[in-house]
Design goal:
Elements: H1 6-15, E1 19-22, H2 31-40, E2 46-49, E3 58-60, H3 66-73, H4 78-93, H5 99-104, H6 106-113, E4 118-119, E5 129-130, E6 152-153, E7 157-161, E8 168-171, E9 175-179, E10 182-184, H7 192-203, E11 207-213, H8 217-224, H9 233-241, E12 246-249, E13 256-258, E14 263-269, E15 276-278, E16 281-282, E17 288-289, E18 292-294, E19 296-304, E20 310-311, H10 321-332, H11 334-340, E21 345-349, E22 359-364, H12 371-380, E23 390-394, H13 403-413, H14 416-419, E24 420-426, E25 439-446, H15 469-478, E26 482-486, E27 496-501, H16 508-516, E28 527-532, H17 540-550, E29 557-560, E30 570-574, H18 580-583, H19 597-606
Helix pairs in contact: 4-11, 8-9
């Protein structure tokens, strides 16, 4: 299913009871974020802010739950797309024994050609209005979080072209607004557009760029998709919408853009320019990504539809709208991974708390010893999966979409001494836990049923059923720096305990972990996760989010080996903040994202006028005591 334009998608959302129009004026600076944060964490409706202080409404949270993400992709279930891709792969790669088999393929091949983008003559609806004097500040660009460096365009569909091959790339990188005709272009070194830029730089040529906002929502998704180099994102969009994307020529740059977009921002990047200091920005990790130097984007034209709507999103502490975009990637790219690289994969999940690159759970069909390790290494070499910090492999009948079931399965099938595998490699640029930027440790957990060749002996599978109040009391009495112990997972068959600790000396956790595993209540526990004393470890989802962001597993693990082959080992992992004084950590550590108290109070006051039902308290309230002193950079 395709949408004629963004307004068509909005009408569909409204008919499905998935959109609320807000007529009250709400300031795009911080206030829209605070409202959206409350709604997105309830998996609430899309929001159309009709009074933004500009001539353009704002659409936000439009793909902020499973149903709306499916609507955007034109399916009732995301697995439908997985099955379609799987069928297509089988058709194209299967044996063709005779002429009849080949003739049967013709309709499908014709269908594939119908997905290819097409350049049309003349102007598109995206060019109905041409700004005489282009000024990006006339758009209602959000300033999302208090320490952001300024307003940021957060859903830009960015078009670049390889100057040597002419192959297009469509990506999504935030754009900080610095003035009417100037933004930053925040592309990371691993991205295709960054490589395009390097080629222009070598040639000494200006790089033409065009940015689309709005149109069919599938364009937004396609721009985020982890496609291999050279695969046109608009072919994927055509496949998803079952209709080719029509492109028109830009007015001032040699770039083609979707005819049905709401806005087109044309411009160039001059490789001879000095880079611009961009950021900080409240990012999808739930932390600020810190300021750095990035290219300048000079705007040469802005065009838009007569009834243009400005699409945007916020990112932050999960869950947010981007979690559902990530869920679509998880389902859509499962089939290509299975059929081209790792055929033993049955399913894969990227949990929201792992913010895409921190955690993956993979289910395989296991046939031989060491197979889980083979799959780990294959996936760490597969495109953007190279950034995955922690990867858990399971097999059998476990439902990997059920977190409790997965945790029980891991606990029953893992010996930390033999089944926790540590490596290192590229890390996401936003991973602040690495000792060196973009390079850090990785953890693979083989939680599959072990074959005889993989067993060190016959370790006991007994899992402690609980920790008594007395045991917890004695531990905290002996170690007063331990502020809380969460052992509530033990009665569920999960051999994992969370401990919040106030570190006060060098190597604190390395010193405290071994004796803890000798104490009653903890001596049979397989895994302890340490978090900061300010974190509420009773909130498991939040604890997993904080832990997965803050740990470099290769650097931050303490393994205690068993005394004989019939006992399990133990492991502790340090998910606390790292500092120079206590940990020798020399990089800046970012703060978490929390709204200002005055913004929270303002939204509380106007909430009854918004048409959003009973007051939803600010999610920031529970994190206010967890933020560090300082601004975007913690002191």
């Amino acid at each position: 299913m395709s949408f004629q334009n963004l307004k068509d998608f909005i009408n569909t959302l409204e008919k499905n009871g998935e959109l609320v129009r807000i007529k009250e004026y709400v300031n795009p600076e911080l206030e829209i974020t605070e409202i959206t944060d409350r709604i997105s964490k309830q998996y609430g409706p899309a929001l159309l802010f009709e009074n933004t202080g500009t001539e353009f409404p704002i659409l936000i949270n439009s793909m902020g739950n499973y149903h709306r993400m499916c609507l955007a992709l034109g399916v009732e279930n995301m697995d439908t797309i997985t099955h379609e891709i799987e069928g297509l792969f089988k058709l194209l790669t299967g044996p063709k024994n005779n002429i009849l088999d080949k003739l049967k393929m013709l309709p499908q091949l014709g269908q594939i050609s119908s997905w290819m983008p097409k350049i049309i003559a003349g102007r598109g609806d995206c060019q109905q209005v041409v700004m005489k004097d282009p000024d990006i500040t006339k758009l209602p660009v959000l300033t999302c979080w208090p320490e952001d460096g300024g307003p940021f365009i957060t859903l830009p569909v960015i078009h670049t072209k390889d100057p040597e091959t002419g192959i297009r790339n469509v990506g999504m990188y935030r754009m900080q607004v610095f003035g009417p005709k100037l933004t930053g272009m925040h592309w990371h070194k691993h991205k295709v557009s960054a490589r395009h830029f390097n080629v222009y730089k070598e040639r000494g040529e200006r790089m033409p760029v065009a940015v689309a906002l709005g149109g069919d929502p599938v364009y937004t998704y396609a721009a985020t998709a982890p496609l291999p180099d050279g695969i046109d994102e608009y072919m994927l969009a055509g496949f998803l919408r079952k209709k080719k994307v029509e492109l028109v020529q830009c007015l001032t740059q040699d770039v083609q853009v979707p005819a049905d977009a709401d806005f087109i921002i044309e411009g160039y990047i001059d490789p001879t320019d000095d880079l611009i200091w961009e950021g900080p920005f409240g990012d999808h990790t739930g932390y600020y990504s810190l300021a750095d130097y990035y290219p300048r984007f000079h705007i040469t034209a802005i065009t838009h539809r007569k009834d243009a709507i400005y699409p945007t999103t916020i990112v932050g502490i999960p869950p947010q709208e981007d979690a559902w975009i990530g869920k679509a990637t998880e389902r859509i790219f499962l089939a290509p991974i299975k059929m081209t690289m790792v055929p033993e994969i049955i399913d894969m999940v990227l949990p929201m708390e792992g913010v895409f690159h921190n955690l993956a759970i993979v289910k395989i069909k296991k046939d031989y010893p060491g197979q889980a390790l083979k799959v780990m290494n294959s996936l760490w070499g597969a495109g953007q999966m190279m950034f995955t910090k922690m990867m858990i492999l399971v097999d059998g009948n476990v439902d990997i979409h059920n977190n409790l079931e997965v945790a029980k399965y891991i606990s029953a099938h893992v010996d930390p001494e033999t089944d926790f595998v540590f490596s290192q490699g590229p890390s996401d640029v936003l991973d602040h836990s690495c000792s060196k930027a973009s390079f850090g440790g990785k953890l693979g957990i083989d939680a599959t049923e072990k074959l005889p060749e993989e067993r060190k002996g016959d370790p006991a599978k007994e899992i402690p059923s609980q920790m008594t109040v007395e045991e917890i009391y004695h531990i905290q009495a002996e170690f007063p720096e331990i502020k809380d112990i969460n052992a509530t997972l033990l009665p569920m068959g999960i051999s994992l305990v969370l401990i919040s600790i106030e570190k006060n000396r060098k190597n604190h956790i390395r010193e405290i972990a071994p004796p803890l595993f000798t104490l009653p209540g903890l001596n049979k526990v397989k895994v302890i996760l340490f978090l900061e004393h300010t974190v509420n470890i009773k909130e498991i989802g939040d604890a997993v989010w904080r832990f997965s962001n803050n740990v470099d597993p290769r650097r931050d693990h303490i393994l205690i080996r068993s005394e004989n082959d019939n006992e399990n080992g133990h492991i502790a992992l340090d998910g606390t903040r790292k500092t120079f004084d206590l940990d020798g950590f020399s990089r800046d550590w970012p703060n978490i994202l929390v709204s200002l108290p005055e913004t929270i109070r303002k939204i509380d006051e106007i909430w009854p006028t918004l048409g959003l039902g009973p007051l939803i308290p600010s999610p920031s309230l529970k994190y206010q005591e967890q933020i560090y002193e300082g601004g975007a950079v913690a002191k």
